[in-house]
Amino acid sequence: MQRLVDRLLAAGGVQAGRLRDSGVRRGSDVGLDELHQLPFVTKQDLWDHYPFGLRAAPETDVVCIHGTSGTLGRQTLVPYTAHDMDVWSEVMARALAGAGVTRRGLVHNAFGYGLFTGGQGLHQGAMRLGASVLPVSGGGTDLQLRLMLDLRPDVLCCTPSYAIYLGESFRSTGITADQLSLRIGLFGAEPWTEQMRIEIERLLGLRALNIYGLTEIIGPGVACESLDSEGLLNIAEDHFYPEVIGTDGEPVPDGEPGELVFTTLTKTGLPLLRYRTGDVAAVCGPVPGSARTLRRMTRVIGRSDDMLIIRGVNVFPAEVEAVLLEDDRVAPHYLVVEDRRDSSRPELRIAVEPYSAAEDAAVLERDLAAALQQRLGITCVVRMFAPGHIPRATSGKARRVVRWNHGVAPLPGLE
Ligand code: ADP
Prior knowledge:
By secondary structure, the chain is an alpha/beta fold. The protein folds into 2 domains: 79-303, Rossmann fold (3-Layer(aba) Sandwich); 308-404, 2-Layer Sandwich (GMP Synthetase, Chain A, domain 3), CATH 3.30.300.30. It has 10 helices and 21 strands. The protein has helices spanning 2-11, 13-21, 43-48, 82-98, 117-129, 141-151, 160-172, 194-204, 317-326, 361-376, and strands spanning 62-67, 77-81, 106-109, 132-134, 155-158, 184-188, 207-214, 219-225, 233-235, 240-245, 258-264, 275-281, 283-284, 296-297, 302-303, 308-310, 313-315, 330-339, 347-354, 381-384, 401-404. Strands 4-3-5-6-7-8-9-14-13 form a 9-stranded mixed beta sheet. Helix 4 (82-98) crosses helix 5 and helix 9 (317-326) packs across helix 10 (361-376). It starts with a helix and ends in an 11-residue tail after the last strand. Bound molecules: adenosine-5'-diphosphate. Adenosine-5'-diphosphate is lined by residues 68-71, 116, 188-191, 210-215, 277, 279, 299-300, 303. Residues 56-262 form the AMP-dependent synthetase/ligase domain. GO terms for molecular function: ligase activity. This is Phenylacetate--CoA ligase. InterPro entries: AMP-bd_C_sf, AMP-dep_Lig_C, AMP-dep_synth/lig_dom, ANL_N_sf, PA_CoA_ligase.
């Protein structure tokens, strides 16, 4: 961390200025115990200095550029040096190995290639490990299915919503999980719940593990579940040092959820000290007695900015998903609509699909509304739609929460 501080001071710019303002002249002025007193850096800083104002390495050292998917509306670009690519491949190879992928493995990579980091991150990691990688990218579902049947990959990587989509597509052509060769899946880039995991494992007949990351820090590989990490994600904390903070910006104790903050200890292109991710999770120690010594994080509960406040009650979309998918009549396709047409009385409208078209809409809607009321403490309007009515994301991230301020309903029939 001291070397990182020296690098930031030498590079000048926003982060150096803030460090100097807080009395830091050199790396040796700070220790891990004082990290929480150092200034944060945020997405807004990256936007304010778009495209490369926070770059810390000379332009000639940059070997590639990636960008966020722009979930919050504006894009962030990140320059990588050869050293950064090396770190990224290393943490990704580690994530794949921890998930049980071997040199004999064939990784079917249906994460999008392009500016988005998903495709490239998994690609580099699989090659570093010595496995083979099939760079299918997202979309083109027929091709995906054919390649999976012809080449018999043992590993699938994509967003969890696309995994469900692929699984359902197989099912609709009469192919069952036991006819597939998949053993392990690494899924991430968007929030998902335990209920989604059960569904994916059932559909595809594999062990589904969670992989987390964000472009600003490196991309996928910041943290990943391993076969033995007991449901939590091992953080690559030798490269990305984690902290968890409360809404007041102060550290919260281990095990308590808060906003994840990462410091990129080893990156050189765009090193960040105390980057506020906006992602909410808790961090705790390694599995007691395990040979793995890295700290672990829970799945991401939500983003601090996607928390909905409905009539004074805080609601994370992931909680809604958990309630919906606990009901085995409900398929994993839903849309949460924050209806703010009347700003004095915001309403949560939830569109769901049943597995069976024969399901009684009135009964299902009533049961789900009661379960949501009990778990979230608010009344929601639940509407059941025919199977296939709610749009699927066949490339990129699933859009499961939309705001309705005025005009026509975001989903026909939701009025
Ligand atoms: P954007 O913020 O524009 O989507 P990225 O494409 O870099 O930018 O995506 C990073 C974000 O995706 C993370 O900050 C997090 O909110 C989300 N994300 C990535 N992996 C996971 C995961 N396994 N579970 C939940 N959310 C995830």
